[in-house]
Amino acid sequence: MIKALRGTKDILPDEITLWDYIENTGRDIFNIYGYNEIRTPVIEEASLFIRSIGDATDIVQKEMYVFSDRGGRNIALRPEATASIVRACIENSLFHAGGVTKLFYTGPMFRAERPQQGRQRQFYQIGVEAIGSDSPFIDAEVIAMAIKFLEKLGIKKFHIKVNSLGCQKDKASVMEKHKESFRPHLEKLCADCKGRFEKNVLRIFDCKKDSCKVIAENVKTESALCGDCAEHFKQVKHGLDLLGVKYIEDHRIVRGLDYYTKTVFEITQEDLGAKDAICAGGRYNNLVKELGGKDTPAIGFAFGIERLALALAKPSSLACPERSRGKPRASSPNVFIAVAGERLYNEAFRLLNDLRKAEISSEMDYESKSLKAQMRRAEKIGAKFAVIMGEEEFKKGKVILRDMEKHSQEEMDLKDIVMKFKKVGIVL
Ligand code: ATP
Ligand code: MG
């Protein structure tokens, strides 16, 4: 039997309600803040990610799915969306003169990682990009919007960590400082981190190895921001205070990707164990220019949808545990038509069509099964009503209407059935 590839998962009909809930909640919140949806291709030229994320990052070196297509082009399955969106903005001139281009997205991303709970090779993200302003108010607003999204989803016990990497110059001096802090521990770092020490010391903070994590948690960290960047960060924090966002300042939040500058942040959720990061984001003021556009500052974030779904499945993570979305079911029809006697199938098929024409979700069994078996199926798929067509009633132009929830039934004229459902208000 052919199975789904390691690290990929089917999202089954029973789970889709939860996924829709997450994506629709995101859409609602992001719309309120002025964001419009964008969908970019899943495949891009590999060089887009190599240039933006950085050719020495784990994502590019170890995790990116790259292949040569039939024309010999070097193609990548997107590992994240920011670079694609910036590419799309430049290519389609989506920049608003003097304003901010606000975009959101949701879709699959691909990284060849070791699969485990909350970590897959094809996973989904929902995120935003605000392109066109360096205002610290935007940073505060973007972080506050991420919180609003979590609150609207009903998730609690999350923590926001913020930091500023400063401008390109500050990043260089902060790296020098970190190098000095890590130098005494160099021998004890893993082989990868020894390489990171030379190429980009910030990435040591993102190492997943326990021994490196202990070192990274204990090294001295200090901020090395220039006057402008220090003021920017102060204003971001001021903005967060204004908006009532509670955060922790943590110099260890560095985000390993090359394109980040100034504000960076992460949100974790307590109940998710080792994979507790649900959202990551930050400023990328040099990326638009780097990819061939005008010098345009920008900021964004991405949530991992699998991890949001995991949090939503845990009553302990919810503001209202009784509203747990742990066991959602696929949508059920409003009406099930059960037929006693093969001769009535034509009538039943016609009624099914009339109900659907009136936009009433309805279902029947297409095989001739016993009435009992049909009613069992109506129960199983969660139909709210059953219309039972029996020979005797049908001769009088009648059917039996059974309320599956109240377990009560009544005889009705067949011709009134569609109107009846309109009256009961099943139609939205
Ligand atoms: P991690 O430290 O967990 O590897 P990351 O720094 O690689 O995360 P980002 O690239 O910033 O993550 O992605 C933002 C969010 O996307 C993460 O916080 C996480 O929720 C989710 N995410 C990232 N990689 C995966 C994956 N392989 N499977 C599922 N979700 C993921
Ligand atoms: Mg990762």
The oligomerization state is single chain
Helix content: 25-40%
Strand coverage percent? 15-25%
- The CATH level-2 architecture of the largest domain is identified as 2-Layer Sandwich
Number of strands: 16
Class from secondary-structure proportions: alpha+beta
Principal-axes shape call: elongated
Radius of gyration: 28 Å
The stretches of 5 or more residues where confidence is low (pLDDT under 50) are: none
The set of bound ligands, ions and cofactors reads: adenosine-5'-triphosphate, magnesium ion
Enumerate the strands of the largest sheet in spatial order, edge to edge or round the barrel.
Answer: 1-5-6-11-10-9-7-8
Structure annotation, total helices:
15
State the distance separating the first and last CA atoms. Answer: 43 Å
Describe the main β-sheet briefly: 8 strands, mixed
Q: According to CATH, what is the topology of the largest domain? A: BirA Bifunctional Protein, domain 2
Arithmetic mean of pLDDT:
92
What's the CATH H-level homologous superfamily of the largest domain?
A: Bira Bifunctional Protein, Domain 2
**Which class of the largest domain in CATH terms?**
Alpha Beta
Q: What is the domain total for the residues? A: 2
